[in-house]
């Protein structure tokens, strides 16, 4: 069997993508706090929801990138 090698560059790229997803979810939480005039302690008390949303956004981004790469490879294979 062939070993799968994940390069350090790929790991750094995926980590950066996850951090961007985390920042987007935190900013969405801040926006909700401002919109509903809630207490700022909500940033800490709703952190578990933010982390779950981050995982969902990250997995969605992975699926979109995977579909994009499949379509791209099919189009280049036909040419």
**Runs with pLDDT <50, length 5+?**
none
How many helices? The count is 3
Number of separate strands: 0
Beta-strand share of residues? under 5%
Distance between the termini: 31 Å
Helix content: over 70%
Let me know the average pLDDT.
Answer: 94
The assigned structural class equals mainly alpha
Helix-strand sequence = HHH
Shape: elongated
Radius of gyration: 18 Å
Largest β-sheet summary: none
Helices and strands, with pairings:
Elements lengths: L7 H29 L5 H4 L1 H32 L1
Structure report:
With 79 residues, the protein is mainly α. The chain has three helices and no strands. Helix 1 (8-36) crosses helix 3. The relative contact order is 0.10.
């Amino acid at each position: 069997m062939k070993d799968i090698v994940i390069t350090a560059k790929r790991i750094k790229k995926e980590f950066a993508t996850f951090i961007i997803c985390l920042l987007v979810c935190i900013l969405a939480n801040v926006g909700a706090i401002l919109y509903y005039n809630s207490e700022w302690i909500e940033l800490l008390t709703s952190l578990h929801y933010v982390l779950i949303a981050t995982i969902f956004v990250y997995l969605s981004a992975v699926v979109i990138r995977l579909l994009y790469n499949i379509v791209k490879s099919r189009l280049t294979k036909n040419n």
